[in-house]
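Bench notes, afternoon.
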Amino acid sequence: MRLNAGFVRTLFPALVAAGITVAGCSSGPVTATAADRASAVATPAKTVTTSPAPPTPSPAPLTRKQAALRYLAIVKPYDVGLERLEKAINGGLPVASLRSSAAKVAAANRAQIRHLQNTAWPAAVRAPIKELGAESLKAQPYWLRAARARTPAALIQEVLKASRHDGAKAAAKIRRLLQLEEYDENDYS
């Protein structure tokens, strides 16, 4: 007699369960004493508990002076790249040079966003720092498109779109709160 495979799959678990039940109810030799069974029932299973790792303490916020120096170090590569791109555009350089400059601005912007987010700023500048980071993030797709532009005109259009998210208001507030001089593009030329 040949058994249907589906029938065996359906029947096998029932047979196993029945076999276990029958074996459990058999009157074969008893190996455990009543005391052993009572002990097994009365002794709860040991549970292993682990404590969560203690949270990593946040670094202490920078002092105003430390924050001022850190801020300038973070924004400098972006500001330098931006000024170089502006000069390259105004100088009529070939599109390949312009794309290279735009790619450097995009990379500097990406690094700036990361550093702004990962620094323990003093409470007074956290909101404008967050605002500057958000504007920089909004500008990033335009910088990336500028870096891939096929013509100077297309690149300039993407740069203009990015410039709508320059974060100038937030940057001016940060500079004021950190007691820094106003932005001067000649510092980065």
